[in-house]
Amino acid sequence: MKKMHVRDFMVPVGEFPKISNQATFYEALMALEDAQEKYLVGKNKQRILLVEDNNGKVVGKVSPFDMLRGLEPSYDQIEAEEKLPSSGLSYALKAIRQQYRLWQTPFADLCKKAKDIKIKDFVKASPDRQAVQRDDRLIKAFNWFVMGRYDSLFVYDGDEIVGLVKFSDVYEDIKETMKECVL
Asked: What is the mean predicted confidence (pLDDT) over 140-145?
């Protein structure tokens, strides 16, 4: 494995489909579907949908998980929710769901609300644990991939997102290196 820095695996932001943070939930749903279809037929190299602010600066990404989270705004009231599974306290999620009545609203009603939801309402800036610097050693990305179970990490150059490093790309290189070791 000769490539040992994040920059060696980084995919520049220019290679990803993008959407404005002012777009609606429905527009994001359609953009995700379009990105997936183009990826499957080979028209796009990437299917991760990046989110841009009014100045064209990448401020996050939107995934199917983000879409579900956007339909249930009560998740934003739970600060500890993201930390529980990784801290071994996932049993507490049941109590939290009951307390905040997560997913208690009929799904059809949530869908009706979706027409008024904008991406900026549910896609947040990338947390530090989901980001690495362009010149970081790859071992830092390994740590975040494993500990956070992330499929991709934002790559920063200073305070600007310049790309993503995807677990699948890193894994491919690890796999090939391991095959060479056996030979």
From this structure: 89
